[in-house]
Amino acid sequence: MHYNGYYRFNESRYDYNEPVFYDVRTTANNNNNNTTINEDIYSYPENFTNAIVLIEEAIAGEEEDRLFYTYLINNAPSEEDRQIITGIRDNEIRHHSLFLKLYSELTGKTPPQLPGERFVPPSSYCEGLQRSIIGEESAVAKYSQILFAM
């Protein structure tokens, strides 16, 4: 039992009898309440298969990222910028290796060659920085999906 939104130390706020990976919505239909369950594509049993697909996409995307950061390094206005972006590019190379290893360990196979995103040089260094931030946010979202699927 809770009081004004607070729970006792050993009480749970979660109902463990309901499925965790389902989006349960109640809709009114002819004055009756109908509960519909919308399965998330990352829920069991599809979670492993979908995670593998996301890992394949991540492998293809990391190659484009490496080319993109190499372009930014070559167009950086200062040595300090070059050093920072070189560190980011080196992280992308490590991510690529990590995803290759993860894919191989999970499937026992080498990943298929998927066409990566086509590298399009930015119109300016500032636009490149903006694209890199947006791209990294997108990658974090994808990597979170992989993590949750596991």
Question: Topology, pairings included?
Answer:
Layout: E1 2-3, E2 6-7, E3 22-29, E4 32-39, H1 47-75, H2 79-107, H3 125-149
Antiparallel strand pairs: 1-2, 3-4
Could you name the ranges where pLDDT drops below 50 across 5 or more consecutive residues? Answer: 1-31
Strand content: 5-15%
H and E order: EEEEHHH
Largest sheet: 2 strands, antiparallel
* Number of domains as seen in the coordinates: 2
Mean pLDDT rating = 76
Helix percent band: 55-70%
If strands are numbered along the chain, what order do they take across the biggest sheet? 1-2
- How many β-strand runs? 4
Shape: elongated
Instruction: Indicate the structural class.
Output: alpha+beta
Radius of gyration: 22 Å
* Gap between N and C termini: 33 Å
Give the helix tally: 3
Structural account:
By secondary structure, the protein is α+β, with helices and mostly antiparallel strands. It has 2 domains: 2-39, no CATH class; 47-149, no CATH class. The chain is 55% helix and 13% strand. The protein has 3 helices and 4 strands. It has helices spanning 47-75, 79-107, 125-149, and strands spanning 2-3, 6-7, 22-29, 32-39. The strands form 2 sheets. Strands 1-2 form a two-stranded antiparallel sheet. It has a two-stranded antiparallel ribbon with strand order 3-4. The longest helix has 29 residues, at 47-75. It is elongated and about 50 Å long. Mean pLDDT is 76; it is low at 1-31.
